[in-house]
Write a structure and sequence with these properties.
By secondary structure, the protein is an alpha/beta fold. The chain is built from 14 helices and 33 strands. The longest helix has 22 residues.
Length: about 675
Amino acid sequence: MELTTVIYIVLAVLVSIAIAFFQYFYKVKRTPKVHIMLFALKALSLFLIGLLLINPKIKTIETENIKPVLAVLVDNSLSTQFFKEEQNVREALSKIQKNEAIQDKFEVQYFSFGKEVDVLDTLFFSDTQTNISKAINAVDELNKDKILTSVLITDGNQTQGNDYEFVTSKNKIFPVVVGDTIQYQDVQISQLNVNKYSYLQNKFPVEALLYYEGKEKVNSTFTIQQNGQKVFSKNVEFSPENPVQTITTNLLSTKKGLQYYAASISKINKEKNTKNNYKSFSVEVIDEQTKVLLLSSFLHPDLGALKKAIESNKQRKVDIALIYDKTVNLEDYQLYVLYQPTSYFKSVFEKISSNFLLISGTKTDWNFINTLDIGINKRVINQTEEYTAIYNPNFLTFFQEDIGFNQFPPLQDKFGEVQLKKEAQSLLYQKYAGVETTQPLLSTFEENEKKHAILFGEGIWKWRAASYLKEQNFESFDTFIGNIVQYLASNKKRKRLEVTSERLYPANAPITITAFYVDKNYQFDNRATLELTITNKETKEQKKLPFSLVNNSYQVSVEGLTSGEYSYQVSVANQNIHSYGQFKITDYQIEEQFTNANKKKLQALASKTKGKVFYPTKTKELLDTLVNDESYYTTQKSIAKEQNLIDWKWILFLVVAFLSIEWFIRKYYGKI
């Protein structure tokens, strides 16, 4: 307690005693005993009132016992149901829940996992994907400041995410292996690599990775069919020494549009699971390609990053050229990326007036750009600045979700204020020196069907790298660049209704269709009523579903569809506006591709984390191991709290009580 506060308290004591003394003893010739009680009540009441006015801070120390955490992770995917292990999983879980020694020693947390991790409620064993590494990392992050161990009840077969065998957990993990661990002979199509697009009358490559488990030499036949017609076939031989075969072929695109194919490998002797012998794929056959020219006056890593991002869509081809190259024919291209233009770009701007993306940076000649009629003016000084992106959720030119723009490294540009001289939409705003602004970082311009966009900053290659580090792939970033390219490259009148869906869905996979609808002024319309009509191409059975408004788009989730080909129509109520598409639901269920539990990987995980593998029948042994492990102990944590005395309401009640008692005594003895 501070010295000043102590002095105030002493003064409060003295003043309280002085006032009480003056009232009951000063110039009083005869002092009844009751005056002593009244003096004490008055002095205490006044002191407590003074104490509340001083309001000193009181420090208290509270102790808290923190148990070690036992995270129980239960596989809720279809593979458990496929192996008919639901009862074993429930029994193992029940033994943990009913064990009093475990409940006393640990803070037990229960989770179920499939594609996502959830607090355990009810087990349905219906998730269509399994991500074991995500489940382990989630509980590690949740309990990073606590003593933690995990019990992992699973068959060990993962279909999504990073390989859990190499997870970097500092906590012991005890897998409980469910499912058959006996190895059966099995051949499967483990992976199909196919481009999404092909050109009419061109050949496209198909690569199939075939995998064999077994102890004998076997022969099989790999086949690709389209509409029931065989388009490719090859005999393959497997052995324990040569269990992997890679088949590569080129198929001819003979028909425009979305084409479906079915790949299969014939059943071998004693094979138990044949559901992993089949896989489907699709290819969209097109007869045109967008050519993009990436024009710069110098080489920069951004050029390579943009080329890879744009060409991730096989419908697009990018050429990189320097401005000094006289052999470039601008008429050969539908879109232009003008990287850090200088006065040497004057002839280019004289020939093109739209369909371009301008990217500025530290070497941009802003004096030259300010003379152009492209809707911007920037007054710069000879100083560079770093600009972090801020996502604008109200951007309406095209649909673009937030891919974590504010977490990307900053872009560099010359410092100065940007003035927009034409109507523009900004997808990203600038943040610099820690200050969020509404200055544009990425803006689109559209006037009389002429479109262009401007990115104010260089270093976008760092965004692509950051996106990969975050998601272990380039897909989000490449889609973002692809959306810009698609918008700028199209000379068609902008559609008021745009619909997005996948072309192939595995059986039982969640199906989500997204729609983006704008009014006549091309502003997002959140008042519209959208309806989805799905038709099974074979049975002609229809299903109608309404869309729900989610942020700046409409979404609908479709369930209960059987395998087959479907067409769909999205319509806007009271408007003659429609969008059409198609997709296919395959018989293939990714969770049914496994023939047995993956004991080998679970054993490797347990060894790496210093845990141990158990089976459902040995659950009691697992629990005894956990209870007897002395490395899991309860810790005591001291928490120092500082509280204002005025928060102690009971003191106020005490003051009221003392004053009330004093008043009643005075009344009783006729002192009032």
